[in-house]
Design a protein that fits this description.
With 562 residues, the chain is α/β, with parallel strands linked by helices. The chain folds into 4 domains: 2-31 and 440-559, OB fold (Dihydrolipoamide Acetyltransferase, E2P); 43-236, inorganic pyrophosphatase (n-terminal core); 240-310, no CATH class; 325-436, Diaminopimelate Epimerase, Chain A, domain 1, CATH 3.10.310.30. The chain has 20 helices and 19 strands. The strands form 4 sheets. A 5-stranded parallel beta sheet has the order 3-2-4-5-6, sandwiched between helices. The protein starts with a strand and ends with a strand.
């Protein structure tokens, strides 16, 4: 792994260095980053189409028309559905929600669903986290007398659907703080705009939606800066007030600490919400987030936990089948991993694709083939826009959508060999070797004597971490091993004490147990790590979560490239 250090010549402190590394170099931007406030959000009316859409919603209220919120089955879609449903209920509309079955209906609007909703009497459909690519389906809705308001955040296609109104911040011209909003963020801004157009000033209700906005934003891995950071920070505060019964129940079933962290969202709450849509139906998760009854929330959280355990077992089997096909020879010949398998669960392959990317540093496309139909999930490395790569093959897909880091599609089984061949050729042309070299970007070099709990506490001001605001990575040089051992099941993890003349450092490295056999007490090492406060038996100390180790040689590439 290639280490690259961002070297800034004159920061007043390490925190200043970290802010500069994140492109924050003026007082106003720094203040808004460190002290996000809801007043820093831009006017929702700056999203084109919002005022027109709000007027149509209020007309539906006046005429008591049945309105359907049409959502997606992942965490972003489910939370966006809940935001919009609660808002329309609050405004007094006749509203229901519809989330398609992931495997029977697929992503987004479908003509059978449109026909059913029309038959049921719906007059207005509001999409959340989907709809921007549903040209034929929205045309059909119009023919059946339904108006459609699209709220979405995915990439803008060449041709837009003929909806009554389209709210997608990516349509905003030029640079804008709302452009990278997740689906839940767009739903939140629309909810805010609806209240304003309706003349309702109820900040308490709006703030009550922030927990949902944060869940969707964090789970969808959108860049955590600008408006996304505001929603994430303020939403985490609302989450920790534990007023939403669904979140309380999920935290309990997952044995989360009193203070729920962003990592708890990533690794405990979001997977359980996602599991419903992956294996059964996302309506279970939506009901959980919308219920105000503790008993119902407890029952649903137990169900989601069981579904998630089942999902993990299925994932282990598929992961083994996938990695069995990826040899060193395969990686040497291919700049992209494209694999298909019979009856791979389509709700799990996206997770496995991410694991392949992490392990092999290749953009990855996995396709589940069931009854002659392929469902594909794609994930990518930082330097490769997988949406653009797959767009070159769009004529082969029945359905296709996504963004630069992830995408999904449907394809008939007989076209999969052509897809594999074409993607191999496209990847060979578009992806350079440099993009496939894992790089470790290091924010700053620190002397071991500087590492203390006060410094760790200061770093907490940068949270929450995620895409676009990754947890800082530091390095320290010339350290010797004082003690090391394998820990955990089968000695899977590595734990060690490193030292120099100034300090003794406690370190841990997950899934790196083999280091205990490879490292030597007689050599000095450079460490690359993230910092954390570790609590054990009532004592708190600084712990280094190791990312990489190398023998000390004072050779490390310095870069100012951002």
């Amino acid at each position: 792994m290639k280490w690259q250090i961002a070297n800034w010549s004159s920061p007043a402190s390490i925190l200043d260095c970290l802010l500069v590394n994140r492109g924050l170099n003026d007082a106003k931007k720094i203040d808004q980053f460190l002290n996000p406030h809801i007043s820093n959000l831009t006017d929702p009316k700056e999203i084109p189409g919002l005022v027109k859409a709000a007027a149509r919603v209020l007309l539906a209220r006046e005429k008591n028309e049945p309105v359907v919120v049409f959502g997606d089955y992942d965490v972003d879609g489910v939370t966006a559905t809940a935001i919009m449903f609660e808002t329309l209920k609050f405004l007094g509309l006749n509203v229901t929600y519809y989330i398609p079955h992931r495997h029977r209906e697929g992503y987004g609007l479908s003509i059978p669903a449109i026909e059913q909703l029309a038959q049921d009497g719906a007059k207005l459909i509001i999409t959340v986290d989907c709809g921007i690519s549903n040209l034929a389906e929205i045309k059909k809705a119009g023919e059946l007398g339904l108006d459609v308001i699209v709220t979405d955040h995915h990439n803008i296609p060449a041709n837009l659907p003929r909806a009554f109104a389209i709210l997608n911040p990516k349509i905003i011209e030029g640079d804008h703080p709302a452009k990278e909003l997740a689906g839940a963020g767009v739903a939140f801004k629309f909810a805010w705009g609806l209240l304003r157009v309706a003349g309702i000033k109820d900040s308490k209700f709006l703030i009550s939606l922030l927990d949902l906005a944060a869940l969707g934003t964090l789970a969808d891995v959108v860049p955590l800066h600008a408006e996304n950071r505001i929603l994430a920070v303020l939403g985490m505060r609302v989450i920790n007030e534990r007023k939403r019964q669904g979140i309380v129940a999920l935290a309990e079933i997952a044995s989360l600490p009193a203070q729920i962290t962003v990592n708890n969202i990533y690794f405990a709450i979001a997977p359980r919400i996602n599991a419903a849509g992956r294996l059964v139906h996302a309506s279970h998760a939506a009901e959980l987030l919308l219920t105000s009854d503790p008993a119902t929330a407890k029952k649903l959280s137990f169900e989601l936990n069981e579904i998630n355990l089942k999902r993990q077992g299925i994932g282990d089997d598929i992961r083994e089948a996938v990695f069995d096909q990826i040899s060193d020879e395969y990686l040497a010949k291919n700049k992209i991993v494209v694999l298909s398998g019979p009856d791979w669960h389509p709700g799990v392959i996206g997770i496995i694709a991410s694991k392949v990317v992490d392990a092999c540093f290749r953009p990855t496309v996995l396709i589940s083939v069931v009854d002659g139909e392929g469902r594909g999930s794609a994930r990518s490395v930082a330097g490769v826009n997988i949406f653009e790569v797959l767009t070159s093959c769009s004529e082969l897909f029945s359905r296709f959508g996504g963004h630069k880091g992830a995408a999904g599609f449907s394809i008939t089984a007989e076209k999969i060999p052509r897809l594999k061949e074409k993607l191999a050729n496209v990847a060979s042309e578009l992806i350079n070797d440099e993009s496939l070299q894992p790089k470790l970007m290091i924010d700053a070099e620190i002397k071991p004597g500087q590492l203390n709990l006060n410094f760790v506490k200061e770093l907490e001001r940068l949270e929450p971490y995620g895409q676009g605001n990754s947890q800082p990575v530091f390095m320290s040089r010339h350290l010797k091993i004082l003690d090391m051992k394998k820990i955990g099941k089968d000695g899977r993890h590595f734990k060690a004490k490193f030292c120099n003349n100034d300090a003794i450092l406690d370190t841990i490295a997950f899934s790196k147990g083999a280091w205990a056999d490879e490292l030597s007490y007689d050599k000095t090492y450079d460490l690359a790590y993230r910092l954390e406060a570790n609590e054990w038996n009532g004592f708190v100390n600084v712990q280094l979560s190791l990312i990489d180790i190398r023998e000390s040689n004072d050779k490390c590439q310095i870069t100012n490239d951002k």
